[in-house]
Specification:
six-stranded mixed beta sheet; 7 helices; two-stranded antiparallel ribbon; 213 residues; Uracil-DNA Glycosylase, subunit E; alpha/beta
Length: 213
């Protein structure tokens, strides 16, 4: 099984994503343009699982959810509930850090139109499995969106049909972990009203309370 460090810079498991990455290296030579490693506390009690790096967000900066609106909302909310520290400045070198929390993506490379295929998610799943296995104090997973939810369950060897995605749901899994669901904190979801800041805050507040108990 791959280790929790994730795929190498020139990972070729997914031909479409490799081609897109190579094209972006030519188009945006100053971007990270490589698989984006996880970020946060190695002793995390909470693992946040997103979908994939954004083209001009994490794919640019090299840190999950850094440089786009989704990160603005995610990191502000984590800070408010004691799961992050410092001043988030949308740069990988801003000194911002996570506390009891770690963040990763179901797919580590930026996909065209922010839409990885099921085959690409499956190819990257061993890295999520390794990430989960490498966190000895893990108590909860927060899945941002249905794909992250499904991949987390598959990484744990659980049937998706037994735990359907539902925003705000918090489920106790057979291995003792808790799985929380939220709609993805993307600008599209907040602009269309699918997710409000209040809705997202409520999910994270619930997790933070449980982690303190």
């Amino acid at each position: 099984m791959p280790n929790a460090e994730g795929p190498g810079r020139d990972c070729a498991l997914c031909p479409r994503l490799k081609d897109f990455r190579d094209a972006n290296r030519a188009r945006f030579p100053d971007f990270h343009n490589a698989p984006v490693a996880s970020f946060g506390d190695a002793d995390a009690k909470l693992l946040v699982v997103g979908l994939a790096p954004g083209l001009k967000g994490a794919n640019r900066t090299g840190r999950p959810f850094t440089g786009d609106y989704a990160g603005d909302l995610l990191y502000a909310t984590l800070t408010r509930h004691g799961l992050a520290m410092g001043t988030y400045a949308a740069r990988a070198d801003d000194g911002f850090s996570l506390s009891r929390c770690r963040i990763t993506n179901a797919v580590r490379c930026v996909p065209p139109e922010n839409k990885p295929t099921p085959e690409e998610a499956k190819a990257c799943r061993p890295f999520l499995q390794a990430e989960i296995a490498a966190l000895p104090k893990l108590k909860a997973i927060l899945a941002l969106g249905r794909i992250a939810h499904d991949q987390a369950l598959s990484a744990l060897g659980l049937k998706r049909s037994a735990y359907p995605f539902a925003h705000g749901a918090m489920r106790e899994l057979p291995n003792g972990l808790q799985l929380a669901d939220s709609y993805h904190c993307s600008r599209y979801n907040t602009n269309t009203g699918v997710l409000t800041e209040e809705m997202f805050d409520k999910v994270v507040a619930n997790i933070a309370t449980r982690l303190r108990s």
